[in-house]
Every structure is written in structure tokens, then in C-alpha cells.
Amino acid sequence: MNKDPLPRTTEYERVLERIGALRVETPSWGYGNSGTRFKVFAQPGAARTIWEKLADAGMVHRLTGVCPTVAIHIPWDRVDDWDALGRAAATQGLAIGAVNPNLFQDDDYRLGSLCHPDPAVRRRAVNHVLDCAEIARALGSRIVSLWLADGTNYPGQDDLRARRRRLVEGLHEIYAGLAPDMRLLVEYKFFEPGFYHTDLADWGTAYSVCLELGPQALVLVDTGHHAQGTNVEHIVAQLLDRARLGGFHFNARKYADDDLIVGSVNPYELFLIFSELVAAEDDADAAVAGCARQVAYMIDQSHNIEPKLEAMVQSVVNVQVAHAKALLVDRARLREAQAAGDVLEANRVLVHAYETDVRPLLAEARRRRGLDEDPVDALRQDGYAERVARERGTSAAPSGYPGA
């Protein structure tokens, strides 16, 4: 392995400390059989229940040391005893993270959920999200993460302004049901499953409803939910500067919402996103810095053909790499180049950090925590995936999402 990218100085220790402070939440649905609308390839050992998902998430956390929470999806992960779920998570060294309501998989939601023209359907959707807020409260979670599939397929299908009014009305009721220490993360997506329009299509629509709701409502950025060529790091900068960035769903895409391993397609973009986040953590504006330090980093991926546990660990490693590289950006030199209008030098500062091999830094950070230097190799050597494959077997997987 190459030598350390920094000399053993105070700066070296500062970078190691910030590497160790990173936390990444993994999703329960990433451990079960899931895939595309065309086909799900069932994998031996894929988690069948929330209890097995917690066991797998616990293994990922033990290997990486940075994944102490697990996001859950309701009703996929509903249980009769939430206290028992909390205790089961704790036995794995975990806690329950974001609670995600499902407002896209019921037949009643064919024309939408919070935006549906039928008040009875909207009432059902609001009640479900409020129920999820109560579940979060029971589990000690502080985040309700909301993605709406609401949209239309044809011009004239519904009144677009009326749909927005219905959306805001429902969100106001949901917001009022949050505990004071909870955050409502509002996610957007520019298309799919709606093909003509989506009610929360971009960061601006999500941001505008968050402003109407109040300070506990923040925008969630899914890195795969943008049109081709969108400058995601610019969106991140805009939301940070307004102190309204609440979280990320990390994944990678080539064409649409592909939900591939984060950092596998465009790692430079991931680095640039973290460069904005790291810089904002030290911003002179206390509101901006406070926002940046509270951003929830979550993975949202569907591992259809790759081994699920290895893919999850590799995803976490890729996030760590991008984050560590962002920590190495020479901010003083960058500011000097920017102030001088030295375009090439400013770009060279970023590229220099991006091209630095941070594996020795990450290896040292893991050694100090008693972890293996290579978490993916450690998983392979442990034999955990093979053991659970023998114990669990292979379950049928008829469609792209659990419970469909």
C-alpha cells in the first residue's frame, strides 16, 4: 500500500479524527431480495425478515465501524412489538434510524397519495405517515424520511395547482404531528413512476414546501433522482447555504434511478459533493455549519446481481474514500486561487485532493478502531455470507420491492 498522503502532524490527526466521525446509515431493504421491475434475482441468504436484516446490518457495522443505524421501511418492516425491535437492534450494536413511509405500493395510490383527488385516499396517506412518526418516536428515531411517487402520466390528467395545494395541506398535518426533536426529510425525484410530471420533481419544489412547513422540514437529496447532466454538488451548495439540507440517499446511476453502488459510476461527482459538505462544516455562518454537521448520510440501493453484503460494505467504503479525499482539499490555497481569479489553479487544488490515494489514511483509521484494513476482504474471509446462505436458503422474489 502506498505511503500516507499526509505527514504525521497535527493536520494528519485532525483528518483522522474527522474520518472517524463519519456515520453512514444502511437501509433494511438493501439486505433483502430487491431489484428492477423486470426481474429480481433471488440470492441465497438474502434477509427475509427485519430481524435478519438487523443481523446483516450489524455485520456491516462491525466490519466498517461507521454504520450504527438502520433505516426501516413501513409496512415492509412492521412488527407487533417495537420495543422488541429496538432491543434486537441494540444486540447488534445498532439503533433504528430513519423511518420511511410507503406511499406508493397500495392499489389506492394509483393516482397518488397526498396529492390524490379523493379525500379518503389522502386521509389514509396522512394517517400512514403520522403512524410512521409514532413508530419513530417509539424507537427513538429522529427522522421521518418521505418520498412520494405522486405524479401524473398525461397532460390534463389532474389539476397541477390543485395537487400542490393538497400536498401542502397533508404535509402541514404531518408536520404538526412531529415530536419537537424530529426532522421531516422531503425527497424529490424528477420522474418515475409518473412520466408526465412528478409532484415533488426537484430540489426547488421540495425546498419550497419545506419553507412553508417550518424549520423541522428539510430537503433530502437522492443522488440518482436527477436528470442527466444535473450538477448535484451545486444543488448541495444551494441547500447548505440556506441551511435546508437534511440528508442524502447515496447511490450511483448512469441513466436513471439505477440504485447502483455509490461511487461506482462517477466517483468524482461524489467527491465534489463531499467537498461542498466538508467546506460547509467549517463555514463562518453558524446556521450553515450547523446544518452541514447534521446532514444524515444514508445509502439507498437495490443490489440485484451483486452480492448484497459485499455491495453494502463496498458502498460504505466508497463513501469513506470520497469523504476522506474532500478532507484533503487545501481550502486556504483554494480560496487564494479563487480570489485571484486563477481558474486553473483552483481546479488543480480539487483535482490534487481527488487524485490522492487515501487508502493508507482509511487503513490507519480502521486499525485505530481495531478493524480490518479491508472490510470487503474481511467479510469474505469471515464466511458470514456463506453461513447465512446455508441457514436461510433462497426465498422467492417475484417483483422489485418487498411485499409487492
What does this structure look like?
Strand 2 (69-74), helix 3 and strand 3 (95-101) form a beta-alpha-beta unit. It contains 15 helices and ten strands. The protein is globular and about 65 Å long. It is an alpha/beta fold.
Sheet with most strands: strand arrangement: 4-6-8-9-10
Given the structure, what is the number of helices?
15
Q: Per the principal axes of the C-alpha atoms, what is the gross shape?
A: globular
- Element order: H for helix, E for strand: HEHEHEHEEHEEHEHEHHEHHHHHH
Radius of gyration: 21 Å
Bin the helical content: 40-55%
Average per-residue pLDDT, rounded, comes to 95
Main sheet properties: 5 strands, parallel
Number of strands: 10
Q: Ranges with pLDDT <50 over ≥5 residues?
A: none
What percentage of amino acids are in beta strands? 5-15%
Class from secondary-structure proportions: alpha/beta
Separation of the first and last Cα atoms: 46 Å
Please supply descriptive tags for the structure shown above.
three-stranded parallel sheet; 10 strands; 47% helix; 15 helices; five-stranded parallel sheet; 404 residues; single chain; globular; 11% strand; alpha/beta
